[in-house]
Amino acid sequence: MKITGYRLETYIQQMDRAIGDANYPAGDDLMGSALLWIETDEGVSGVAPSGNSKVGDLFHLIEGEDPRGVAGLWKKMVDYVHKGGNEGEVNGAIAAIDVALWDLKAKLNNEPLWKTLGAREGRAKAYASDIGYNLTDDELHAFFSRMADAGVEGGKVKIGLSMKDDLRRLGIVQDALSKAKARPYLNIDTNEYWSPKQAIRYISQIEEKFNIHWAEEPARRWDFDGLRQVSRGITAAVASGENLNDIGQMYPLISQQAVDIVNIGVGHSGITGCRQVANMCYAYELPVTMMNCQANFMAHLAAALPNHNMMEVVDPGREKAFASWDNHIEGGWIVMGNEPGLGITVDEAKLKALQDNPPKRKPNFPFPRREGAGLWIKDLEPGEVAWKK
Length: 389
Hints:
The chain is an alpha/beta fold and 389 residues long. The chain has helices spanning 55-58, 70-80, 88-108, 113-116, 137-149, 163-177, 196-207, 224-233, 247-255, 270-283, 299-302, 348-356; strands spanning 3-21, 24-40, 45-48, 123-129, 154-158, 185-189, 212-216, 237-240, 261-264, 288-290, 308-313, 322-325, 327-330, 333-336, 344-346.
């Protein structure tokens, strides 16, 4: 069996609602998306819900190779970009190719990917994440209440620009989730908006009223000294890592005891790279938490990790080009089925419609860093979010 070609389709989709954080609280409901297929001479293809033009620069490295040697092909790509660095779109291309190869490998095994990856059962514990700084209080409560109805016991809320509003909204989240767990796991996320000292001061105030499970990205992603300072200055665990690219960038945070919980995801150079980061964390007795993704496809890997805590689930509706995906949330877990590979089926008609009718504006994603970050708090302006009059 040999890899013979690839197909990359890009499109912009309008989500069911906007998503936002402390850096861009107004949020945006547009998102650039892609689908990548890796094709073989036996007519079986693997698909990844990601990809970019750099795939073309890397494809010659895997063309003609046996697709079942996923880890070896991943190393071949990473070695190739050694001098230029595994950064930006290059990292995204490696990740997409890697995911498509894992999907292909599991399809060749005629089994779901979680089995190919060695999981004992196809499920991963979930926590709810609104990514909704712009949600009204009623919308916030409705989202977490709906997740609690599915048994989800924990939630993460975006904060960082107003202590008064943050405390009120944390109370809303706690109330909504309390029907699933009397003392739900409350997580907060400031997306690197604060400095370490700001984080310690503000989180300490929050902890006077709420039991916080983890505080995510309370300082810059690479600032292991600052993150360690925050970890030692608050009661909650510090979580970070989602915006780093690979095990090399993660190493200082882990070895210097700068994080207590490690955010992992497909952005860590695909499934292969993400598993490497998780394995390093396991050696340091650190739990990992899987980041959100379309159709929860990274739950396959989460189910196979011995140190996985909870996986982030959201509901903005990013699956516009999909016909189906073989998982659902039940009893607080992402439960995966037995369809081969990732279990994702693409609707070609929906994909073509998205490409033929693009929005008239471009997405404002990923978000820029908000003015005042790490220096002062830029207050919310009237009308910037729905709940700020």
